[in-house]
Structures are given as structure tokens and as C-alpha cells.
Fold this protein.
Amino acid sequence: EEAEGLRQMARSSGEQELRQMAESELPGAEARLAALGEELKILLVPRDPNDSRDSILEIRAGTGGEEAALFAADLLRMYTRYAESRGLKVELMSAAEADAGGLREATIAVKGRGAFAVFKHEAGVHRVQRVPATESQGRIHTSTATVAVLPEVEDVVAGCVSAFGDQGGCIAR
């Protein structure tokens, strides 16, 4: 409404000063209109039903040998600190250590409101290029680690009764 009012004022105003003021304010109003349109598009996207769930993260060392295992350990520390800074609780479910102090794989449970929404976009292969501490000639090594992010599911078998009246062979819905 503001942008349309300024357009009308710029076209039909008899006063030169009023017309100039409307023309100078019009770009700002149109920019706010465009920004509100983009914000509205984001608000209209349906929410992921799993966003409010707890999450399970699995981190595995990829290519790069011991350096990849060190990178996986760095990722675990980074995700743990980030989750704790957001008020989420982190529980180490399993870990397999590598020889040089890194991790072959680790699984953590992240619990708290919106844990899956926080971490769902971290899934995939992560790559790092750096000079490892073990490198004596200063060569850059490339290493990878994979991160899987899953929403924690709730138990649905409770209260399920099969066609024979017992709980055996019941398919959860």
C-alpha cells in the first residue's frame, strides 16, 4: 500500500517538491516490498514434520587414511560444541578410534527441541585440505568424512494387535 501510494503521488502530485519526495522514497518502499515477498515465500514452504525430533548423527572417516580419521574427530568435536552452544544435549552412542588418535566412526544422539532441524543440512561428504601435523615437507593432504543425519523415531509397536489377537507378527503403522 505504501509503494502504491508513493507511485500515485509521484504521478499525480501537482507540487514539484511532493513529487520529488515520493520519487525518492519509492525505491526504498519497492525494496521492502520485494524483501517481504521473499520472506512470505519462505514462510509458505511447508515445515518438515521431523524438524522437532531428536537427531542421530553418524560420522565416518572417508578417504585420506589417518588424516581422514583426525578430520572425523574434528567434526565430532565441532558438532558436539555447536549442539551444546544451542542448548542441545549430546550423548555418545558409539565410537571406533583410529591409531593416530582420530575416529574411524562415531555415532551421537542429539536431544532437544528442533535437533533434527539444526543438523539435517549437515548430511553428506565433507572435504578438508590442510597440511597435517605429521607432514614433514609441507604438502597439502585432502581428506573426507561422511556425515549421516537421521531423525530419531518413536516406538510405534506398543498397543498393536495382530489378526490372531496376539502381539506376534504385528505390523506397526
